[in-house]
Write a structure and sequence with these properties.
About 30% of the residues lie in helices and about 25% in strands. By secondary structure, it is α/β, with parallel strands linked by helices. It has three domains: about 210 residues, FAD/NAD(P)-binding domain (3-Layer(bba) Sandwich); about 110 residues, FAD/NAD(P)-binding domain, CATH 3.50.50; about 110 residues, Enolase-like, domain 1, CATH 3.30.390.30. The structure holds flavin-adenine dinucleotide (FAD) and 1,4-dihydronicotinamide adenine dinucleotide. The site of flavin-adenine dinucleotide (FAD) has 36 residues, from helix 1, strand 2, helix 2, helix 3 and helix 9.
C-alpha cells in the first residue's frame, strides 16, 4: 500500500493538469487511469483527434476551392482515408506520450487500472489499495444516449466511432446541431459525404448569440450541410451497413424517414461516475447526475474533491484544466480561483466560431443597457487576401461604463482572436481600452479592434 498527499482519478485535461500542478506544489501525487493511454476523452477521442481531421479536411477544401484562384494549378488531392486516420492516430500518440513524459518529469505515479473509493482517504485500483489525504475525482463524461437509438459504433455511432469510420460515408445523418455534430459533420462534408443534420430546436448551437447562430448556419449551408430543424428523432433502424432515422417535425407532428450509411448521434454528453462507489460514500449529486461541489471543488465528503466534466459547468477541456490547477492550489493551502464568467468557447469549423461572456439575448433578458460594436471580416485586408472574409466580430459593452461584457466571433482564427478579449475582460477593460491598443497590420486581430472602435465613434474600414 502506497501513501500519497493526493490521488486523482482520471487523467483527462482536468486530472493530468491537476496532477502536474500538485506535484509542482510539492505534493506526493498519483493519478489513476483505466485507459491504455493518458489524456482522457480530450486527447484520445475528443479535442485532439477531431482537430486533426478538421485540419486535414480543411486543407483539402482549400486545395479544391482556393488554390486555382491563387495561381496554384494542378490536380486536387484525393483522399487516402486510411492515411488520414493514421495521421490522426500519430497526433493522438504524440500527445498522450507527451503527458506520460510530463508525469515522469514531475514524479507523478500513474496507477494503471480503474479506481474506486471504498472510503474517504482510500483509493482501490484493481486489488491494490492506496492511501490519500486528498482524493480528486476527474472521471469526465461519456456520450448521452437517446431513447430508440442503439449505438453500435459502426453504423450508428457516437463521436468516438465517427473518429474511426471504416470509410467516408456517402450519406451521413447527424442527430444534433451542437458542437460535435457540426465539427464532425463539417469534416465529412469536406471529404465528400452528403451530410444532413437533424436538430430538435429551431436554432443550431443552442445558447450561442442569435446573430452567430444565423450566420454560422448560413455558412455551413453554403458548404453543403443540410439542416432539418425542429425535428425530434424518434428512433433509428439499422442493418450492418445502413440505417434509417425516423423523426417527427415538432410544428405538425408529422413523421418522416431519412436514409443514411452512417448516423452520428451528437445530442450531448453526461458525467461518467460508474464504478467509483459514490453511492456508498454518500456523495451528493446534482439533479443532472453531476457530482455536487462547493466553491473550492469539495464534495460533501471531507477530503474528496471533483473537477471537470463530472461537475457542473461547460464541458470543455480548458474549464477542466483551470479547475485542475485551482483545486491543486486549494489543497496546497493557496488561493485557487476560476473566473467562470470568462471561459471562451470555440467551434473549430471553418470559419471558426468563438464566444466569451454574455450573449445579446442574455443582456436583453436582464434588461441591462448595452451597446454593440460589430465589424465584418469583409473590411479586413488580410481576411480578403486569404479568402476569409465571411463572418464578423461583435463586442457587447455596458452602455454607460463601456466595460466589455461579451464577444462573439465568426471568422478566420476566431478561436485565437477571442483571447485578447478574454484578457481584456479579466482586467475589467472597456471597449475603448481595446480600441486604443495598437494592432499590427495586416492581421485578423484588426477586426477585433475595429469592433471595439464600433462601440465608440465608429470603425475606420466600414
Ligand atoms: P475526460 O477527458 O473525460 O477524462 C476522464 C478520464 O478519466 C478518462 O480517461 C477515463 O478513462 C478516466 N476514468 C474515469 N473513471 C475512471 C476510474 N474509475 N478509474 C480510472 N480512470 C477513470 N473540449 C474543448 O475544450 N475543446 C475541444 O475542441 C473539444 N473537442 C471535443 C471533441 C469531441 C469529439 C468530444 C467528445 C469532446 C470534446 N471536447 C472539447 C470536450 C473535452 O474533451 C472535455 O471537456 C474534457 O475532456 C473533459 O476533461 P475531464 O478531465 O473532465 O475528463
Ligand atoms: P451539444 O449539447 O453541444 O449539442 C447537442 C444538440 O443536440 C443540441 O443542439 C440539442 O438541441 C440537440 N438534440 C438533443 N436531443 C435531440 C433529438 N432527440 N433530436 C435532435 N436533436 C437533438 O452536445 P454535443 O455536440 O454532443 O457535444 C457535447 C459536449 O462536448 C458539449 O457540451 C461541448 O462542450 C463538448 N465539445 C466541445 C467542443 C469544442 O469545444 N470545440 C467540440 C466537441 C464537443
Amino acid at each position: 500500500m502506497a501513501s500519497y498527499d493526493v490521488i486523482i482519478i482520471g487523467s483527462g485535461p482536468g486530472g493530468y493538469v491537476c496532477a502536474i500542478r500538485c506535484a509542482q506544489l510539492g505534493l506526493k501525487t498519483a493519478c489513476v487511469e483505466g485507459r491504455d493511454t493518458l489524456g482522457g476523452t480530450c486527447l484520445n477521442v475528443g479535442c485532439i483527434p477531431s482537430k486533426a481531421l478538421l485540419h486535414a479536411s480543411h486543407m483539402l477544401h482549400e486545395a479544391e476551392h482556393n488554390f486555382a484562384a491563387m495561381g496554384l494549378k494542378g490536380k486536387s488531392p484525393s483522399v487516402d482515408w486510411k492515411q488520414m486516420l493514421s495521421y490522426k492516430e500519430t497526433t493522438i500518440e504524440q500527445n498522450t506520450k507527451g503527458i506520460e513524459f510530463l508525469f515522469k518529469k514531475n514524479k507523478i505515479d500513474w496507477l494503471k487500472g480503474w479506481g474506486s473509493v471504498p472510503e474517504a482517504g482510500k483509493v482501490k485500483v484493481g486489488d491494490e489499495a492506496h492511501e490519500a489525504k486528498n482524493i480528486i475525482i476527474a472521471s469526465g463524461s461519456e456520450p448521452a444516449s437517446l431513447p430508440g437509438v442503439d449505438v453500435d459504433e459502426k453504423v450508428v455511432v457516437t463521436s468516438t466511432g465517427a473518429l474511426e469510420l471504416g470509410r467516408v460515408p456517402k450519406k451521413l445523418v447527424v442527430i444534433g446541431a451542437g458542437v460535435i455534430g457540426l465539427e464532425l459533420g463539417s469534416v465529412y462534408a469536406r471529404l465528400g459525404s452528403e451530410v444532413t443534420v437533424v436538430e430538435f430546436l429551431d436554432v443550431i448551437t443552442p445558447g450561442m448569440d442569435g446573430e452567430v447562430q444565423k450566420t454560422f448556419q448560413k455558412l455551413l449551408k453554403k458548404q453543403g450541410l443540410e439542416f432539418i430543424m425542429g425535428a425530434a428523432v424518434q428512433k433509428t433502424e439499422a442493418t450492418k451497413t445502413k440505417a434509417k432515422v425516423i423523426y417527427k417535425l415538432r410544428k405538425d407532428d408529422s413523421e418522416h424517414v431519412i436514409d443514411a450509411d452512417t448516423v452520428l448521434v451528437a445530442t450531448g454528453r453526461k458525467p461518467f461516475t460508474e464504478g467509483l462507489g459514490l453511492d456508498g460514500l454518500g456523495i451528493e449529486m446534482t439533479k443532472r447526475g453531476q457530482i455536487a461541489v462547493n466553491k473550492e471543488w469539495q464534495t460533501n465528503v471531507s477530503g474528496i474533491y471533483a473537477i471537470g466534466d463530472v461537475i457542473e459547468g461547460p464541458m470543455l477541456a480548458h474549464k477542466a484544466e483551470d479547475e485542475g490547477m485551482a483545486v491543486a492550489e486549494v489543497i496546497a493551502g493557496k488561493h485557487g480561483h476560476v473566473n467562470y464568467g470568462v471561459i471562451p468557447g470555440v467551434i473549430y469549423t471553418h470559419p471558426e466560431v468563438a464566444n466569451v461572456g454574455v450573449t445579446e439575448e442574455e443582456l436583453k433578458e436582464t434588461g441591462r443597457d448595452y451597446k454593440v460594436g460589430k465589424f465584418s471580416f469583409m473590411g479586413n485586408g488580410r481576411a480578403k487576401a486569404n479568402f476569409a472574409g465571411d463572418g464578423f466580430v461583435k463586442i457587447l459593452a455596458d452602455k454607460s461604463t463601456d466595460r466589455i461584457l461579451g464577444a462573439h466571433i465568426v471568422g478566420p482564427a476566431a478561436g485565437d482572436l477571442i483571447h485578447e478579449i478574454c484578457v481584456a475582460m479579466e482586467f475589467g477593460a472597456s471597449a475603448q481600452d481595446l480600441a486604443l491598443t495598437c494592432h499590427a497590420h495586416p492581421t485578423y486581430s484588426e477586426a477585433v479592434r475595429e469592433a471595439a472602435l464600433a462601440c465608440g465613434d465608429g470603425p475606420i474600414h466600414m
